[in-house]
Write a structure and sequence with these properties.
It comes from candidate division WOR-1 bacterium RIFOXYC2_FULL_41_25. InterPro entries: Membrane_prot_PTPS-rel_domain (IPR018776), TPR-like_helical_dom_sf (IPR011990), TPR_rpt (IPR019734). Keywords: Membrane, TPR repeat, Transmembrane, Transmembrane helix. This is Membrane protein 6-pyruvoyl-tetrahydropterin synthase-related domain-containing protein. 55% of the residues lie in helices and 9% in strands. The chain is of the alpha+beta class and 846 residues long. The chain folds into 4 domains: 270 residues, no CATH class; 136 residues, Rossmann fold (3-Layer(aba) Sandwich), CATH 3.40.50; 116 residues, no CATH class; 123 residues, Tetratricopeptide repeat domain (Serine Threonine Protein Phosphatase 5, Tetratricopeptide repeat, Alpha Horseshoe), CATH 1.25.40.10. The protein has a 4-stranded mixed beta sheet, with helices on both faces. The protein has a 4-stranded antiparallel beta sheet with strand order 7-12-15-14, with no helix packed on it. A 4-stranded antiparallel beta sheet has the order 10-11-16-13, with no helix packed on it. Helix 24 links the parallel strand 8 and strand 9. Helix 3 packs across helix 5 and helix 14 packs across helix 16. The termini are far apart.
Length: 846
């Protein structure tokens, strides 16, 4: 009878999982998922070329990591992004068209989440119908429309976070399997392989699983649990070392993007659709607080909030941990009925009732998912603007070899994504500046500075860098530096500025877009340098390079970030500039120079994996390019694996051998090896180690760890309050907004002095002067404004600084100087609102 009941429960579970899939397909129509079109929508559109590059360029070389030239002046692909989703898509594309494989890969995490949540609760040994109810509840999280950028839910996935989505699903699977494996001392290989797979999905989900697993150290069997965790995580990391070790080593060559995410409303965290399930979660905590599984959930929920609040202080993007909080509380709500199960008679009917209620709730609250799915998966080719977009791409495909710059504009979304032109390397086989994987590139801050100089509505993505206001004059040296030959303009302001500038020539009009040729560009990726080179041994080359770039003019000296020197570092104006030709390929650069006396600037991003023949070494040169001193007239640069790549491969081979030794077919070989040796190799532990820990006592260790953590949090709080620019600026803005200008001067001045964050220091410099003005300290304010303008002659805040400088002169009765400062605003910043303000003041003064 019990077996029959179990079979019926399993059948009900499978039926409901099938109905959940059907429900999801009601939104993710096969009409769009199975159409052979190129996916659009947010970041997702820019991911497609990555798949194409992986399959067509890297796979034939036997690699999954390499160099991509198309965006950000080149960047290392998959050295700072997660390859698993793309690997699955690429493999699937050998069977079905690549466009369809990509679409299926992007929704895989969505369809897997209910299944993985169900499996999680089964591993946690919750009785029927709790696992299937938890799976149903997970739909509520998926259809939550409170955000579209945090990750995990459908809108975030459609916006491009599909790797995170898959990682979140696998997190729940391993969240349950680790609990079961540790409790039963089973699933060693399953969990080890799962950890490896999770790591290649998304680093955040792996990190969170790792810290969540510390829960098992607070148990009656801490030593045994620790050995199990070291074993599965150790083997898991060995298996992915071929990718993970290069990933970690490459962190020194990425651009940090960490800041405290501002959540402006309680309803963003717990929107109306999630709120009832939060209440269920609270009831589950009250009713089942003695249940160890509840402790596991509550510990992990609390951990997600803790990391959210302290994450930015330790270099972690906090918002990626909020989806864990949301999904965990929704799923945990299903456990409310644990103690009531024996009294519930219609347990077989209950999941169907719950499913219908959840389906109706989703139908009532979800308003955007269907439209977003259609927008993404009907593809570029089905948009009404496709003919216009195709015309532009076909035109660029026949163009010069230089890079294509485009104006950043929300209007670009008409093609299917605001980032549509990031796919020029795919559609037109042309290199452009901007791209999706901005953290993977050391060049991205400079690219976004150019964007601010050439767009009416730039995005300013990095808060730790300052930006410019619109200025073609300031942009021209930068465009030449980046070998920009063509410029796509969208807005009226930018078109008018280009039309009035003799250095740009209109080449083509297509719909609302105009293409201008930049006449001052050489269309060369490699050029001989005739200016002086300055060798720099700075401790922070990024800040120095960015300041250099912000003020760069034609003829300026370049900064070479190296200890050594070369005799060819001085200007060579009395020699005839040699003819230099180059061929830029995917992972190689062929150069021919007519004179080896001239150093060569290679307008491609620097990375240590670039190797050179025909020169002694490759130097990092401002802004973030490569410089060589040729020893031969024929030079070849190739992007190759580094030593850390081979170390990673060796560790992965070791991991595979250890994995094989655990399989039943290798029992004899395993018995021939020393069990103690094998255990030490996998876990780093042996009996003597355990004895030492026991001698100390796990309680003492945990108390010591708690004290250390409390001290660490206190230090983090002190540091953030007094030395972290983000939090200092928050306090300074609050003081300024409440007219506490004395405090504002102190805080803004501290940010300026720290120079820890270039973007914050730039803004703080202006508001430091404004705060002095507000106190009537005009003489000090004049000095502060002058100092700001000297340091930031063309930043976003500079037009306002000139305007406020003029106002300060007025306040001091120095009318002539005020008029001159207002005229500087009109002359130097004609495309800003400050020009209009200055004209009004000038009219009154005259």
């Amino acid at each position: 009878m019990k077996k029959t009941s179990f079979n019926l429960e399993l059948i009900i579970d499978l039926i409901i999982l099938l109905l959940i899939t059907v429900f999801l397909l009601g939104y993710f129509s096969p009409q769009y998922l199975l159409s052979k079109t190129t996916t659009t929508g947010g970041d997702t559109a820019s991911h497609y070329n990555t798949l194409v590059y992986l399959k067509n360029i890297l796979f034939p070389q036997g690699k999954i990591m390499g160099w991509m030239q198309g965006n950000y002046a080149g960047f290392p692909l998959f050295y700072h992004y997660f390859p698993l989703s793309f690997l699955l898509m690429a493999i699937l594309s050998f069977i079905i068209p690549m466009q369809i494989a990509f679409k299926l890969g992007t929704v895989l995490g969505i369809f897997l989440l209910p299944v993985c949540v169900y499996a999680c609760c089964r591993f946690l040994k919750y009785k029927f119908p709790i696992p299937i109810m938890a799976a149903i509840f997970s739909l509520v999280f998926l259809f939550n429309e409170g955000n579209s950028m945090w990750g995990g839910n459908i809108l975030s996935t459609l916006a491009g976070e599909f790797s995170y989505s898959l990682g979140l699903s696998l997190f729940f699977l391993l969240f349950g399997s680790l609990y079961y494996g540790i409790r039963e001392q089973k699933l060693y290989l399953f969990n080890a392989v799962g950890i490896a797979v999770l790591g290649m999905c998304h680093a955040v989900t792996l990190f969170f699983l790792g810290v969540a697993s510390l829960f098992f150290l607070f148990s009656p069997r801490p030593y045994q649990n620790l050995k199990y965790l070291l074993g599965v995580f150790g083997l898991g990391f060995l298996l992915i070392s071929f990718w993970f070790i290069p990933f970690v080593w490459n962190l020194q060559w990425v651009t940090s993007f960490v800041f405290p995410w501002s959540i402006k409303s309680f309803w963003a965290v717990l929107p109306p659709l999630l709120l009832p399930f939060f209440v269920l979660s609270l009831l589950a905590m009250i009713f089942n607080f003695q249940d160890k599984r509840s402790h596991y959930f509550l510990y992990t929920i609390a951990l997600s909030l803790l990391i959210f609040f302290v994450g930015p202080q330790v270099g972690i993007l906090d918002i990626r941990f909020m989806p864990f909080f949301q999904c965990l509380i929704v799923v945990f709500g299903a456990t409310m009925i644990v103690k009531q199960l024996p009294t519930i008679k219609a347990t077989k009917l209950l999941p169907f009732i719950v499913m219908i209620i959840v389906f109706l709730l989703i139908k009532s609250y979800s308003s955007n998912v269907s439209a977003w799915v259609k927008w993404n998966y009907e593809g570029f080719e089905q948009k009404s603007s496709w003919a216009n977009f195709k015309e532009l791409n076909d035109y660029f495909a026949q163009g010069p070899s230089g890079r294509v710059l485009y104006e950043h504009s929300p209007a670009n979304n008409v093609f299917g994504s605001l980032r549509a032109f990031e796919s020029l390397p795919y559609f037109a086989k042309r290199n452009t500046l901007e791209g999706l994987y901005m953290m993977a590139s050391i060049t991205s801050p400079f690219v976004f500075n150019i964007q601010s100089e050439t767009s009416e509505k730039p995005c300013h993505p990095y808060p730790n860098y300052f930006y410019s206001s619109f200025s073609l004059e300031k942009a021209k040296p930068h465009l030449k530096l980046f070998n920009v030959s063509q410029f796509i303009a969208r807005t009226k302001m930018v078109k008018q500025a280009l039309a009035a500038d003799p250095d740009f020539r209109l080449e083509k009009s297509a719909g609302d877009y105009q293409v201008y040729r930049f006449l001052k560009n050489s269309d060369q990726y490699v050029e001989p340098l005739t200016t002086k080179l300055v060798f720099s041994t700075t401790n922070d080359w990024r800040k120095d390079a960015y300041r250099w770039f912000a003020n760069y003019e034609d003829g300026d000296s370049f900064l070479v970030f190296a200890d050594g020197r070369d005799p060819r570092t001085t200007a060579l104006p009395h020699y005839r500039t040699p003819r230099v030709s180059s061929i830029i390929s995917n992972e190689s650069i062929n150069i021919r120079t007519g004179d080896t006396r001239f150093p060569l600037l290679i307008k491609v991003s620097y990375h240590p994996n670039w190797k050179v023949k025909g020169a002694k070494k490759i130097y990092l040169v401002s802004p973030s390019f490569m410089l060589i001193f040729p020893q031969e007239k024929e030079i070849l640069l190739t992007f190759e694996r580094g030593m850390y790549n081979y170390v990673g491969i060796a560790f992965s081979v070791l991991g595979l051998l250890l994995l094989l030794l655990q399989l039943p077919g290798f029992k004899k070989l395993r018995e021939q090896l020393s069990p103690a040796w094998l255990e030490r190799l996998i876990t780093g532990c042996d009996d003597s180690w355990e004895g030492k820990v026991k001698k100390i006592g796990i309680t003492k260790l945990l108390i010591s760890l708690t004290i250390i953590l409390l001290i660490l949090f206190a230090l983090i709080f002190y540091h953030s309050r007094n030395y972290n620019s983000f939090y200092l600026m928050k306090r300074a803005r609050q003081a300024y907004g409440s007219h506490n200008y004395v405090k504002a001067v102190k805080l803004f001045g501290r940010v300026v002095k720290l120079q820890e964050n270039l973007g914050a220091a730039n803004e703080a410099g202006l508001f430091y002067a404004l705060s002095l003005n507000a106190q009537g300290r005009y003489t000090e304010a004049l000095k502060a404004f002058d100092q700001f303008i000297a340091e930031y002659p063309s930043s976003y805040w500079t037009p306002q600084a000139y305007f406020e400088l003029a106002w300060t002169y007025q306040a001091l009765g120095q009318q002539d100087k005020a008029i001159k400062a207002y005229q500087d605003v009109v002359r130097n910043f004609p495309q800003t609102v400050w020009k209009d303000y200055a004209l009004k003041r000038l009219k009154k003064l005259r």
